[in-house]
């Protein structure tokens, strides 16, 4: 049987039972035409007892890196070995529903080549220090209007089912950041892909994320705040520097988010005399995310689209001098930069019209919804392992209070020593 999808599981010193659960969920897939690449990022602890019985399967390959390189470089090593049209990342402490690959492959077969990523909805499972499941919550993904919408959503997508040719066309996972791809690798690759491709969202439960005391992100709040700034500034610069971000930081949690994007004033041409009166565009001074969620249709990752309202009462005035946008401060590795204040926006009167920068609106990344009905046999909530909330070990929710999952960006586990 020819395989259509490769599952990549990068890991470093996985906790007892976690890697076994992840691998077992792949073997429990309804579809069997998959490959599995286990990428050991130079672990120092013995994990083989968790997966030894699966290594004899011809579809499974274990790759050991000679030195600890981090999540992005581990994934890039896996990318070199992929020989299927699609691949999907599975973090070593998460797992799939039995129908996950069936839904994604069926959906991908109907999509055009410019769709690089297919994602769905996610269930969070919280565990206490003893490994008991104490609560679950369901969060719904959504569509993104364009790359600016994705930046303002302050989130990621799950699962990340990639078209292999698209990932290779952007050079794989970037490693040119201060942490060499060890932090927020998911958001960086998604932003690169969104520069050239579109994403597609499936309204089905497809991924289960485990929240526990040893989560990579629980130890990484400061670095994630730093990388939120770095990643956002890097993406905006690659897009032509048309906007400056304004960041907000939660005092209680330390999480940093992109609050809004402010258009940067364009350079105006010199005019030796007043121009004939005409309607001139007025630039909005800022773009701010609305507070209520809304689904928006898919479109190519381009600049915002809506027209800007023209000035209602133009008057003749002398020409404005040339203005130069304020340069973005150079990034200092491993130290967060201060939030950028809005630039003054000139009112344009009696000057040649300039291209308008249009508003971009953000929508919260997830909306809590009831668990939907499943389309495939054995895909709904049940009592067997890996079938959703149930009563078998590691399958059902608990009842302890204050145990729900978080929604902060870049919540996948790390694989390197430097991420602890």
From TrEMBL:
Which ranges are annotated Gly residues under compositional bias?
407-420
Keywords in alphabetical order: Glycosyltransferase, Transferase
Glycosyltransferase 2-like domain mapped to chain residues: 6-127
GO MF annotation list: glycosyltransferase activity
Which ranges are annotated Low complexity under compositional bias? 390-406
* Disordered as annotated region, ranges: 269-343, 390-420
Q: Which InterPro entries match?
A: Glyco_trans_2-like, Glycosyltransf_2, Nucleotide-diphossugar_trans
Record's keyword annotation contains Glycosyltransferase? yes
Q: Name one Pfam family in it.
A: Glycos_transf_2
Q: Does the keyword Transferase apply?
A: yes
Determine the domain of life of the protein's source.
Bacteria
Its family remark reads: Belongs to the glycosyltransferase 2 family.
Q: What is this protein called?
A: Glycosyltransferase
């Amino acid at each position: 049987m020819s395989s259509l999808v490769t599952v990549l599981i990068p890991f470093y010193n996985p906790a007892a039972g976690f890697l076994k659960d992840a691998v077992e969920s792949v073997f429990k897939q309804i579809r069997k035409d998959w490959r599995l690449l286990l990428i050991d990022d130079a672990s120092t602890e013995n994990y083989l007892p968790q997966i030894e019985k699966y290594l004899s399967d011809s579809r499974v390959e274990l790759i050991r890196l000679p030195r600890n390189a981090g999540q992005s470089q581990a994934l890039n090593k896996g990318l070199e070995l992929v020989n299927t049209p699609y691949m999907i990342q599975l973090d070593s402490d998460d797992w799939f529903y039995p129908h996950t690959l069936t839904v994604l492959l069926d959906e991908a077969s109907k999509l055009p080549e410019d769709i690089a990523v297919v994602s769905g909805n996610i269930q969070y499972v919280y565990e206490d220090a003893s490994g008991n499941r104490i609560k679950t919550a369901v969060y719904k993904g959504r569509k993104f209007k364009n790359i600016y919408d994705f930046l303002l959503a302050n989130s990621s997508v799950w699962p990340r089912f990639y078209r292999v040719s698209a990932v290779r066309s952007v050079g794989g996972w970037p490693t040119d950041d201060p942490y060499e791809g060890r932090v927020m690798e998911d958001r960086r690759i998604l932003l690169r892909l969104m520069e050239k491709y579109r994403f597609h969202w499936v309204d089905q439960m497809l991924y289960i994320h485990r929240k526990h005391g040893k989560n990579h992100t629980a130890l990484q709040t400061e670095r994630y705040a730093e990388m939120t700034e770095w990643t956002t500034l890097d993406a905006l610069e690659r897009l032509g520097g048309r906007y400056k971000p304004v960041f907000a930081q939660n005092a209680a949690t330390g999480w940093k988010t992109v609050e809004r994007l402010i258009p940067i004033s364009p350079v105006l041409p010199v005019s030796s005399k007043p121009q004939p009166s005409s309607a001139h565009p007025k630039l909005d001074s800022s773009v701010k995310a609305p507070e209520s969620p809304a689904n928006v249709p898919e479109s190519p990752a381009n600049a915002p689209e809506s027209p800007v309202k023209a000035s209602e009462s133009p008057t003749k005035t002398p020409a404005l001098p040339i203005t130069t946008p304020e340069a973005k401060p150079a990034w200092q590795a491993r130290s967060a930069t201060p939030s950028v204040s809005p630039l003054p926006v000139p009112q344009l009167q009696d000057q040649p019209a300039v291209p308008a920068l249009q508003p971009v609106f953000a929508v919260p990344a997830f909306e809590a919804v009831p668990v939907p009905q499943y389309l495939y046999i054995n895909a709904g909530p049940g009592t067997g392992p890996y079938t959703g909330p149930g009563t078998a070990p590691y399958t059902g929710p608990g009842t302890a209070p204050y145990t729900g999952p978080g929604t902060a960006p870049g919540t996948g586990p790390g694989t390197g020593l430097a991420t602890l």
